[in-house]
Amino acid sequence: MERFILREKDIRLVTPTFQRRYAMLKITNRALQDVCTIHGQFISGNISIDATSDNRRSGNISMIVARSDIRKISEISTTNFVRVYWGVQDNTTMELSWYRQGTFIVAKNSFSFDPQTRTLSLTLTDRMSDLSGERKGVLHAYSTVVKNSQRVDDLMKSVLELGGVNEYDIIPICPLKTTSDVEAEQSPDDLLVPFDFKFGEGVTIHDILEKCVTLYPYYEMFFDVDGKFICQKKVLDGDNALAVLDESILRPMTLSEDTTFTVFDIKNYVEIWGKEGKYYGEAKDNRIDSPFAVSSIGEFRVVETYEQVYDRYRDIAKAEELLKQQAKYENQIAVLEAKEKLSKEEQQLLLNNKSNLEINLNAQKVNVAVHGNDMATAWAKQKLEEHCRLNESITIHCVGLPCINDAGFKINRRNKIDATPYTYVVQSVNHDLGSNTTDITATRFYGGQAAVIKYQMSPTTVTQSVVTGMTISVTAEEVENADSYILYVDGAKVAESPTPTIEFTAPPYMEGEHEITISASGDGYITSQRTPPIKVDFETEDINTLITDSGDNISTDDGENLLID
């Protein structure tokens, strides 16, 4: 899933002097095809996005409906979805920009109408309610899913389609090969359903999906802003995900900020036991920069049991067969090697058996690559984040930021207490549609400062180019936030200017035809794409020059030869 993109225009529009805000509802059918559109203005309400919940989006909105759209309200029903848009108008250009806030199911709606008011009120929940049994999603019966019978992600897709969900983006779910490498290499067996799933009557589609997503740590599922089902890895403390928002962008939009330390629930030493108490793993907070480190405050231990921790969820029958084959080959090899002299046939048999033994040993290693203890340790690390990392949070109260329509991403923020920059992950976003404000709640990461996503500078165009001899003057269209403009000749950078007009004098050896392009550059942005190439001709001045013995240059305007005694 791609994170939202924050553009310079988005930031400019939320500056208080530019704010005019509008409401738009797009009613769609169950195939997410547009049925009608209702326009108006928000009166009050909120849109909430919570990365810690499978039901990621919810809302309550009240809006004045445009008189011309009143009849369309009848299309709001249990059989349709509602896409909510927050519109912002730029007073300087009168351009209206729309930001989608989510694709919702209407849990409750009311409409009051009189000559003065045309107020529509909606209570909204996201599509997960159609899978969890809250509205729909209960299956009459569901047969056992046999282990290793199919891929986990294929099972999720087939179950989603039972619930009428055909829009999904599901990454392959697999266990970690090592506890230190989140992006570990996969093997085909890692992607399969690892053991029997047994469900009784009244099972919901969400129950089965949840069983799949919680097989291994670090996965999450939700419906995104477009109403598509997403299953992906969470943003983690030590991963390489870039920060979406930087201090320089967020600080001017901040109205106030609160820092919270929840000390009662701190657990900095987590022990996890697996199924039947066979497997064990632990994780401690040993970071020197953590206020909850064991070395700073002592041990706050918690012990939990996880039934889903097991020994690689391996096929026991297959493993036992491999062990039998291994013993058989080892015995044959021992018998042959004990002979003082081997025939050619026996030598070949010895080589074959050694080769077969190596193949089966490798296969067995793959089959037991993730031990139950490793799995328990991986879960312990995730639980450490829940018990320890999530206890230090900030809530940033901002001007309304409709461009932020997701959660679960990194930001960089300078702590108000000690003025130190830290990386946080956004856990929730709440838009107050009445006060036009946004609250961002984020928890601190300890994996170092994350680099910020840099968006590409808008492209420019060449408006004029003049060549005089070996000198060229090029003027480009001005680009917002550009600090400099770069001139390239035949792909090589030759000149740079803080203004859109760039001059360059080529050396004599560059006489002839060349191609020029220009790009724009700005602090915090990736340099823009270059303009389409333009052909130009550099020409030296057409004069005859005489070199005297003393090195003096003598020339005539008409090229006449001069004789010097």
Which key terms come to mind for this protein?
565 residues, alpha+beta, six-stranded antiparallel beta barrel, 17% helix
Q: What is the structure about, briefly put?
A:
With 565 residues, this protein is α+β, with helices and mostly antiparallel strands. The chain is built from 8 helices and 29 strands. The strands form 7 sheets. The protein has a 6-stranded antiparallel barrel. The chain has a 4-stranded antiparallel β-sheet with strand order 23-22-25-27, with no helix packed on it. Strands 7-9-8 form a 3-stranded mixed β-sheet, covered by helices on one side.
Shape: globular
Helix vs. strand class: alpha+beta
- Mean pLDDT value: 80
Strand portion: 25-35%
In spatial order, strands of the major sheet run: 1-2-3-6-5-4
- First and last CA, distance: 83 Å
Number of strands: 29
Enumerate the spans where pLDDT stays under 50 for 5 or more consecutive residues.
179-183, 365-369, 543-565
- For the CA atoms, what is the radius of gyration? 33 Å
Description of the structure:
- With 565 residues, the chain is α+β, with helices and mostly antiparallel strands.
- A hairpin with a 6-residue loop joins strand 4 (81-89) and strand 5.
- The chain has helices spanning 8-13, 152-162, 205-213, 247-250, 294-297, 316-338, 344-367, 372-387; strands at 21-28, 34-50, 57-65, 81-89, 96-113, 118-126, 168-170, 219-223, 229-233, 243-245, 254-261, 269-273, 280-284, 301-305, 392-399, 410-414, 421-432, 437-444, 455-456, 462-468, 471-476, 484-489, 492-497, 501-505, 512-521, 525-526, 534-538, 546-547, 553-554.
- The model is unreliable at 179-183, 365-369 and 543-565 (pLDDT under 50).
- The chain is built from 8 helices and 29 strands.
- The strands form 7 sheets. A 6-stranded antiparallel β-barrel has the order 1-2-3-6-5-4. A 4-stranded antiparallel sheet has the order 23-22-25-27, with no helix packed on it.
- The N and C termini lie far apart (83 Å).
- The longest helix has 24 residues, at 344-367.
